Amino acid sequence: MKYQSQAVALPYFVAAIGLFVGQILFGLVMGLQYVVGDFLFPEIPFNVARMVHTNLLIVWLLFGFMGAAYYLVPEESETELYCPRLALALFWVFLAAGALTILGYLLVDYATLAKYTGNDVLATMGREFLEQPLLTKIGIVVVALAFLFNITMTVLKGRKTSITVVLLLGLWGLAIFFLFSFYNPTNLVLDKFYWWWVVHLWVEGVWELIMAALLAFVLIKVTGVDREVIDKWLYVIIALALVTGIIGTGHHYYWIGAPGYWQWWGSIFSALEPIPFFAMTVFAFNMVNRRRREHPNKAAVLWALGTGVMAFLGAGVWGFLHTLAPVNYYTHGSQITAAHGHMAFYGAYVMVVITIISYAMPILRGRACNSRKAQVLEMWSFWLMTIAMVFITLFLTAAGILQVWLQRISDSPMPFMAVQGQVSLFYWLREISGVIFLIGLIAYLVSFFVKDGDKPATT
Amino acid sequence: MHAAKHTLSPSLPAEPRLAGDLAIWIFILAELLAFGLFFAAYAFARAHDPALFAPEQEALNRNAGAINTALLLTASYFVVRAVHAAEAGRGRQGARWLLAALGCAGGFVVIKLAEYVAAFNAGISLSSSTFHMFYLSLTFFHFMHVLLGMVILGALWLNARRGRYGPRDMNGIESGAAYWHMVDLVWLVLFPLVYVIR
Ligand code: HEM
Ligand code: HEM
Ligand SMILES: [Fe+2]
After folding, report:
1. CB of A274 sitting under 6 A from ligand 1
2. C-alpha span between A113 and A107 (Å, rounded)
3. So where does this one cross the membrane (chain A) (predicted)?
4. CA-based nearest residue to B35, from B198, B182, B136, B149
5. Is the ipTM value over 0.90, yes or no?
């Protein structure tokens, strides 16, 4: 660790991993409820489990991004963090707010929660991914602003690099677009229209900048390739991401009551969205091939390359699959959407956060890299989780194709629930893959505690 | 390290040289792909309903389009002169050519805006018909590129005036010129496709 204040990243990474476990457990609960309808009813209804699963995902990714920023920015800026104590205080605020919110979801019914948290003052709840009570939303904004203040001040007082510039752009964008979660017009078309400004412009816009910056940072560290080379890639990638991603929002405007030209605009621009993801893959492999040193942390390199490949598959390929209006007409809101959502979130954002954790955590714990044994276990967890996710995606895609066929295309369309019965085999297979994912995750956790049987793998 | 340098800043003298930066070429290719897709979509939609497209296409102002074509081509010619001047070590003289190119581009913008005003007064909008949707989207998307191209030409002009470009430092001016030629090239497809071919 080059700068003392980078240490504040540690609790953020620990919290991220802890919440990740919670997310997966709730995923498994839901996966089972898909095939055993009354499992855990009435204690944990499906809709509550879903909310917990997706919100935990977002929250732990945010913990990961913040931890990554606290680790990366001092090192890039070559100066201590502006105010480490603020960072630590925000950690506890964010953790408490997150925990209270999840407990609220689980212990109180949603309408009651809404009543006691000011939803009648400003109604913002009840929309997918943005279910958080008003108080939590305000808390998120406060934490985000204080975090951005801290990070921005650090960048301003230190060296400015393209990585910190791109990262800051992404993080500011994240905070600014979240403000649209407070805008909830009664007109349902407008509501949906701006809802996507949070959801889509996050994952297919500003988060891509964060991802590119984190990936570039780790790649510089593990390959020793010239910064100049990486800088250019970074700017090309973010230009491509923004040019395609912003108007690409149109792929969500096909059937919500927005003007018809969105079918053309959305199809054309979103069809190009895979390009920046592809560029990131090429970038990652290029850098590793040109490496000027053999970094002893092999696991981090594996995660970095995996991010490139899986993000391209999940976002690029599975996104393209259903992004053209004539295709989306049939696939909209089917299991194909869920297949894509899983692989894209995992491949891009889950994996990039694990990449930076994998690189930074050993250093935060006082060594360049983990022992060989720990790394081998971590690489096992990489393969278990990644392959399990590939299978979850494939089974959901199969279920989705059947669903679309039986329910929407065939000459005698079947009702929704009848179709769900027909494809339940795939839901079982998804659940089994989910268990394997959990095993991979446990292996990942254990890898942090493997005692150095041999010395740290150094070169 | 040398291999790395080679791909992204290809200014080694001995081998065949790519004019401008590889990064700008990647960007240009992506832009061309975007326009290409848009053109293909247009052709596809038109093939479906030629009867709808023909009269509305007929109503466009082909003279304005033709003048604009001439303006963009002239601007491209001036940009080429500027690059040659820089290559010959007369970078400051190149600045004047760039200013002339900017003037042509400005003319394009004025004429295009006049066309838009006329169109809006005639009740044409993105939703008034499929052809109008394409006409407005394609030309406006291109229009935005002309504006960006002008910003780039402006930056080149400032640098050229300060005598920055010369036989030893061609990367910036060549990259900017490549971008401008892309803007011109796209119009050379757009104009016949949308205004002329029936
Ligand atoms: C890492 C980047 C991405 C992530 C995390 C992601 C995630 C998601 C998620 C979670 C949904 C479901 C939203 C809902 O609840 O309705 C979704 C929908 C969608 N995504 Fe992505 N996505 C990414 C990139 C892309 C890309 C690059 C494309 C296109 C090439 C794409 C195309 C779509 C489409 C068309 C839908 C709507 C599906 C429907 O109509 O049901 N996505 N995405
Ligand atoms: C890191 C791994 C995971 C990520 C990133 C993830 C992400 C997501 C996302 C983004 C959604 C919303 C999808 C949409 O709106 O279309 C979702 C829903 C869901 N996830 Fe996961 N998930 C993961 C792991 C799992 C696992 C292991 C299981 C269970 C086997 C699971 C089961 C579900 C179920 C059943 C839903 C609800 C789908 C529906 O509403 O029909 N997830 N997950
Ligand atoms: Fe999207």
Report:
1. yes
2. 9
3. 12-36, 56-74, 86-108, 134-156, 163-183, 195-220, 232-256, 262-288, 300-321, 341-361, 382-406, 426-450
4. B182
5. no
Domain carrying residue B181? 22-196
Residues A269-294 have pLDDT tens digits of 999 999 999 999 999 998 999 899 89
Count of helix runs (H) and strand runs (E) in chain B: 7, 0
The contact set of A with B (CB < 8 A) is 225-226, 228-229, 232-233, 235-236, 239-240, 243-244, 259-261, 264-265, 267-269, 271-272, 275, 279, 290, 292
Residue pair A171/A202 in contact (Cβ under 8 Å)? The answer is no
- Give tens-digit pLDDT for A359-379: 999 999 999 899 999 999 999
CA gap A218, A240 in Å, rounded: 21
Is B180 inside a domain boundary? yes
CA-based angle B119:B130:B64, to the nearest 5? 35
- A67, two tokens: 């931890």
> Around A59, how many Cα atoms within 13 Å sit in the side-chain half-sphere?
33
Q: What's the CATH number where B166 sits? A: 1.20.120.80
* Domain extent for A64: 1-160
Return the ∠ at Cα B164 (arms to B158 and B165), rounded to 5°: 105
A chain contacts of residue B37, beta-carbon cutoff 8 Å: 268, 271-272
The residues in B 121-180 lying below 8 A from A, measured between CB atoms, are: 126-127, 133-134, 137
The total number of structural domains that make up chain B: 1
Whether residues B27 and A290 touch (CB distance < 8 A) is answered with: no
What is the atom index within ligand 2 of the atom nearest the CA of A50?
37
Contact list, A292 vs chain B (CB under 8 Å): 1
Q: What is the DSSP string of A28-83?
A: HHHHHHHHSTTTTTTTS-HHHHHHHHHHHHHHHHHHHHHHHHHHHHHHHHTS--S-
For chain A, how many structural domains are there in total?
Answer: 1
Task: Map tokens 């960048």 to a residue.
Answer: A155
